[in-house]
Amino acid sequence: MMARRKAGLGERHKKILKFLEKFQSENGFPPSIREIGENTKISSTSVVNYYLNQLEEMNFIERESNVSRGIRLVRTLEGNLMQTAKAITDMFTVPVVGRIVAGEPVPVPSSDFNYYDQETGIDIARSLLPPREKTEDLFALEVQGDSMIDAMVNDGDIVIMRPITQVENGEMVAVWLSDRDETTLKYFFNENGKVRLQPANPTMKPIIIDNPAQVKVQGKVVLVIRRMENV
């Protein structure tokens, strides 16, 4: 049971505000709830949420419940208003081009990666992206399946992708398996001349591709937009 809140800011409120300001300044985007807990010595995410709700009530932060890392610092611990108005209103639309499977690969027409329906898009704030991330070529995919749940990517979520030509081990990517005519969302590892597509779900096994040429990387995940019931 939570203790009754006293008027004003407590020590945990202050620690969270200091961390939010420092993290935003250094990274250009907000921290996750888990990162807040780890850096302020709060072991429970529900307790972090409890204090964040209070800070929102006191108008220190704003929150978008359906967006991963959807916390915005409105004013500092000293009460100074943050210069975030431009960032908050700097919205742009990312086209939703299809669906990606986070599970066993399933056949999807290749046009799903190439067809941009101009009327299907999702609006996001520029401030949610890494500081140097370009917005021009970003595209979005709806996630189907639960193989990436330990990476906080759930069935029905939207992943914002950046097209890439080179991929580093450990990056979460959308891949096209050309020999199977199938797509999937997984962590990528190039090991001993083979490709391992690793799920973030302990109940699922990795997919091993003997011929790396058959793995066509379509994009890298740069942001996750949470479905409301997944929050």
Features:
Umud Fragment, subunit A, single chain, alpha+beta, ten-stranded mixed sheet, 19% helix, 4 helices, disordered N terminus, two-stranded antiparallel ribbon, 231 residues, Arc Repressor Mutant, subunit A
Instruction: Give the terminus-to-terminus CA distance.
Output: 22 Å
Q: Give the CATH superfamily of the largest domain.
A: Umud Fragment, subunit A
Number of DSSP strand runs: 12
Q: Structural class of the secondary elements? A: alpha+beta
User: Describe the biggest sheet?
Assistant: 10 strands, mixed
- Portion of residues in helices? 10-25%
Please name the CATH topology of the largest domain.
Answer: Umud Fragment, subunit A
CATH architecture of the largest domain: Ribbon
Give the strand content.
Answer: 25-35%
Helices, by number, come to: 4
CATH top level assignment of the largest domain: Mainly Beta
SSE map:
Layout: H1 11-27, H2 33-40, H3 45-57, E1 61-63, E2 71-73, H4 85-89, E3 91-101, E4 106-107, E5 121-125, E6 139-144, E7 158-162, E8 172-177, E9 182-191, E10 194-198, E11 207-209, E12 215-225
Parallel strand pairs: 3-6
Antiparallel strand pairs: 1-2, 3-5, 4-9, 6-7, 7-12, 8-9, 8-12, 9-10, 10-11
Structure description:
With 231 residues, the protein is α+β, with helices and mostly antiparallel strands. The protein is 19% helix and 30% strand.
